[in-house]
Amino acid sequence: MSLDVLQRFLLDDLDIRGAVVRLGPVWRRIIADRHYPEPVNRLLGEMCVTSLFVTEALKQPGRVTFQVRGTGPVSLLVVDCDERLNLRALAQSGDDIEQGTARTLLGDGQLVLSLDLPSMRQPWQSVVPLEGEGIGDIFEHYLSLSEQLPSRLFLAATAEGAAGLFLQKLPAADTRDPDGWNRVEQLAATVTDDELISLAPDALLSRLFPEEVVRIFDARTVIHETPEDWDKVRAMLRSLGREEVESVLQEQGAVIVRDDLANREYRLDRDAIAAIFDEAPPTLH
C-alpha cells in the first residue's frame, strides 16, 4: 500500500462522511533541502493535508491554491493541489521560530483560496480572516462559511510525515441519529498525533469507530511532480527585458530563477540568455 494516500469513507448509519490522509515520501520530498524550522514544517504539513481534503471534495475536477498570509514570524504558507492530487507547497518565515499555535506564529492575516476549474474563464477567489488557534480551526471556520456543514479536522505533521482525519456532518445526520455527530466527534478527538501519522487509514478508522458501520472507498494516491518548465522561465525573462536581465548577468555571472513552489532552481549562463533574446518571437495567428 502507498504511504501517500487519501482514503474517503462514510459512516453509513449516521450520514457522516470523512477522509483520512497519510503522507510520507511525498511530504519529505516537498520539504527536502528547505531547512524549515520545526514549527513551520508542522503548519505547512497540516495545511497540505487539509488542502487535499478540500481538493478531493470538489464537485468537479480542478486546481486549488491556498495561501495563508500573516503578520507573525511565519509570513506565508502556500499549498497548491490539482485534480490528480499533485501536491506542491512552500513557506516563508524568519529563521528563529519558537513553538506556538498557528495563531501565534501567523499573527493577524487572511486565508485566500483560488479555485481554477476547466469551466471557468478565470480562477475564482475567496478571502476570509484567520479565525482560531490552529490550522484545523482556520479551515473549519472556512468550511462553515463555504459549505455551511459542520466539519472537524484532526491534523498532525512532523519532518517525517503528515496526516489528518476529516469529518463532515451531512444534512440528514440528525434524522438518522440525533446523537451521532456528537458521539463521532468525541471518538475522533481521542486520536493521537502518532496514530494519525503511523496507522494505515483502515486501521485508524477501526480504532476510532469500532461500533460504527464504516464504508471505505478506494484509496487515491497523492503525488509530488514538478517537471521543468523552461518555456515559463524564458517568457518571464523576456517580460523583464533584455537590459534588466543582462544587468543581473553582469553583476552575478549567471541568472538564477527560483521556483519556490516546485522547489526547483533554473540557472542560465550568458549563452542561454543571449539565445532567449536573439531567437525570433512567436508568430501570432
Mean pLDDT: 89
- The structure class reads alpha+beta
Shape: elongated
Main beta-sheet strand count, sense and barrel state: 6 strands, antiparallel
Relevant terms:
alpha+beta; CBS domain Like; 285 residues; 2 domains; Hsp33 domain; 29% strand; elongated; 11 helices; six-stranded antiparallel beta sheet; single chain; five-stranded antiparallel beta sheet
Can you walk me through this structure?
Strand 4 and strand 5 form a beta hairpin. The model has no long low-confidence stretch (mean pLDDT 89). The N and C termini lie far apart (50 Å). The strands form three sheets. Strands 1, 2, 8, 9, 10 and 11 form a six-stranded antiparallel sheet that branches. A five-stranded antiparallel sheet has the order 5-4-3-6-7. A two-stranded antiparallel sheet has the order 12-13. The protein has eleven helices and 13 strands. 35% of the residues lie in helices and 29% in strands. It is an alpha+beta fold. It folds into two domains: 5-221, Hsp33 domain; 230-278, HSP33 redox switch-like (CBS domain Like), CATH 3.90.1280. It has helices at 25-31, 38-56, 102-106, 135-146, 173-176, 180-188, 193-198, 201-208, 230-240, 242-252, 270-278; strands at 5-11, 16-23, 63-70, 74-81, 87-93, 109-116, 124-129, 151-157, 162-169, 214-216, 220-221, 255-259, 264-268. The radius of gyration is 22 Å and the shape is elongated.
